[in-house]
Amino acid sequence: MSDAGGRGYLAIPGPSVMPEEVLRAMHRAAPNIYEGALVEMTASILPDLQYVARTCGKVGIYIANGHGAWEASLANVIAPGDTVLVPATGRFAHGWAEMAQGLGAEVELIEFGRSAAFDAGRVEDALRADKEGRIKAVLATHVDTSTSIVNDIASLRAAMDAVGHPALLMADCIASMGCDRFEMDEWGVDVAVAASQKGLMVPPGLGFVFASEKAEEVRRGMERVSRYWDWQPRFDPEFYYQHFGGTAPTHHLYGLRASLDMIRAEGIESIWDRHERLARAIWAACAAWGQGGPLTMNVEDPAHRSRAVTALRIGLPHGPRLRRWVEENAGLTLGIGLGMSEKGDPSGGGFFRLGHMGHVNPQMIMGLLGGIETAFAALDIPHGRGALEAAARELAAV
Fold first, then answer.
1. How far is CA 174 from CA 69, 208, 312, in A?
2. pTM greater than 0.90
């Protein structure tokens, strides 16, 4: 079979599908980086980023991926020797914790495994036991891209308030922003981090850090912050270049302006609703497939599943065969199982992930599911029937 006709579909959990509007906006000559239209456009981007994050807090833009946004957030509020509390529900919580350790912080980690959301009660117990106030921040992953778990960030704020603990609440929204519901101010989040390549529909390369007034006050008390990661000049620049610690990421900004226009036009509430419907269609198909075969969803409780990414287990040898077949024969690329090793499968090849974030609609999701069903038939992988019909019913329900 040849997949030479048509377009390929990158259904991984980031980079996500880029809209034509974004690609066209970026296809231009380099602009003047000192004055004029680029400066004016940048000023228009900041309030729209605040709109997506649902915050009145300030936002800094970094020329970096999500890992850079992690480091930027920590560098401004965590000093060497400080302690951070990390409730972990997958690989990316561990990654943020490792970043904190690299900056000299002590990490207190509460492990919740790879298939269940965190329990705010256990976090509350840890905070209550911190009589000396060693813990300076709670690092919470809103959606862990490896496990597809969505965590209840508001419950952490309630736990912190119940104890009266002064730590900052910091949220990793890299996979969730613009896909899963996130309310920075309403949920009492002090620092949120995001990146350009998922729900914001722009190529990798931009990291975002949002900060509350409380977080800004902590930054003002820091003895030192590296010049590049310091968010103060980015929040309140005297000169345009200070927004970015140097030369502006010109073409990423053009793409971001186009994507934010699309988000504004659809409305963030409608975007959350769309991702909800598409995710439920995927879950319905996966549930049907699992009735007659080895496929299982990593997260059993729908309330704890992300609306942006779905992690699945199909076991060996099916996982690698499935991903290879759809890429070579259907023009469809599925996400690898990341950080999901298990006994007999140290690389996690028996897991795979579906990215359904950002610029996606029902026909794209049905194409994704149809490609997988075709692979099941071609490879003689056992699976239940009626998956596409189940997905269609979810999409048809209004």
1. 9, 9, 20
2. yes
